[in-house]
Structures are given as structure tokens and as C-alpha cells.
Amino acid sequence: MITILSETTKNPITLMGERAGVCWGADIQNAERNYKRGLDCIKSGHHRVMEYVNVEMILEGYSARVIREWYTHIGGAPTRLQASTRYINYKNFSYITPPSVAGNPEAERIYRETMETVAAACEKLESSCKIPREDAAMLLPLGMSTKIVDKRNVRNLIEMSHQRLCTRAYWEYRGLMQDICRALSEYSEEWKYLTEHYFVPKCDVAGYCTEKKSCGRTKVFEPGADNINRLRE
């Protein structure tokens, strides 16, 4: 579940145009002109203005594994806080079950029983063995669901979408990015425009597939004089 916080910029394109207008000596009191100027910046590739757009949200119900991957995309000075394994009682922690496991009865049974065993072990370590909760928590698996509050700018988020909306991305991360797109598109009309036009797989940006193992959605780029000249045009 994605919760877009009120601190998130409501009209991102207008704000981009307003910030750019300061540098251009333009009238920044006119919201309509600011919006048009913001669109011009985006379409022209002047994307530094995107770094003024604040995005703050709560990401909840995703695995610790995918959140750990989320942390690795650090461009644009994002910051975040994650639910603490030192203080929260994870006696009956929730967890993510991959579709490949859920679709296999035997695998699902093994997976579920293992999670139950881990939960029981954490409880016994803390209650019977008097082990501090922060140490018993070392048993908690990457599949455990967690919650973070995240802050970043839209340029960082758009660049992240190019990688994580790719069909080669891990299924849960792709689902997380799709959830973010959906939540932002419902936040305002300007966000709806941005998510529909700029939150796209990297093949839409490059015009060809950059992956060694393509899904076949677009053609794979093959080095050669003709292709290199085409990209320079």
C-alpha cells in the first residue's frame, strides 16, 4: 500500500516552471505560464527543475528484500525511515509469498511452516531465554513485510521507474513501482500527466532494449555504424 503524504508537491509541473522562471527573469505569479514553462523544461530535457518537486510517502506491506533494493537508488539525496526491528514486536510478523510459491501447494506448505517456525523461535528466544528483542530479530527473514516513510524528488523517482518498470525487474519491485504510479496519479492531475508520460520502462526512453536478455517488447540495440549514427540524430 502506498500513502502519498500531504507534504508532496500538489502541482509538480507548475512548481518546476516557477523555479525555472526565477532563472529566466519571468513572471512567476502566473500559474498558467508556470505550467507551460514547466512542460517546456521537461520536454526539452532540462530535468534539474524536477529536483524541486518533493515526494513523501509511506510504503507499507512490501518485503524487507524489496525495500532493501529500494534503498540502493540514492540519487537526488533521498532519505527514509524504516520500521524498527529493535522495538516492534514481530511475534506474528506478516510476510510476502512469491507467486511461484503460492502456485505450488507443496512449496507453499514448506514456505508457510518455515515462517511459522521462525516466528515461534523469535518468541521463545525473547520470552523463555530472555534474549533482547533486537537480537532475536536477527532471525527475521527478508520475506517479512515492513513499512518505511520515504522522501525524494521526482527526478530520482522517474529515473528509478525506467529500471523498475522493465519486465526484467523483480516482480515485487515492479509491482511496488506500479503502486506508486497509481497513487501519484490519483494525487492530482499534474501527477497523472507525469506518471502517464514519464514513468515508463527504459526501452521507451532509449527507443530500444538495453538488456542482454530482452523480453521482446522492443528491439535489442546492436552496435554498428548505422545504429550509432541513428542514435546521434
What are the key terms here?
4 strands, 49% helix, 233 residues, four-stranded antiparallel β-sheet, alpha+beta
Question: Could you explain how this protein is built, in words?
Answer:
With 233 residues, this protein is an alpha+beta fold. 49% of the residues lie in helices and 11% in strands. The protein has helices at 12-24, 31-44, 64-71, 99-102, 105-127, 133-136, 154-164, 171-185, 189-197, 202-206, 225-232, and strands spanning 2-4, 54-63, 79-82, 145-153. It has a 4-stranded antiparallel sheet with strand order 1-2-4-3. The longest helix is centred in the middle third of the chain and has 23 residues, at 105-127. It is globular, with a radius of gyration of 22 Å.
Please estimate the helix content.
Answer: 40-55%
What class, by secondary structure content?
alpha+beta
Element pattern in H and E: EHHEHEHHHEHHHHH
Calculate the terminal CA-CA distance, rounded to whole Å: 42 Å
What's the number of helices? Answer: 11
Q: Biggest sheet, strands in spatial order?
A: 1-2-4-3
Biggest pleated sheet: 4 strands, antiparallel
How large, in whole angstroms, is the Cα Rg? Answer: 22 Å
The number of distinct β-strands equals 4
Shape descriptor reads globular
Mean pLDDT: 88
Q: Enumerate the spans where pLDDT stays under 50 for 5 or more consecutive residues.
A: none
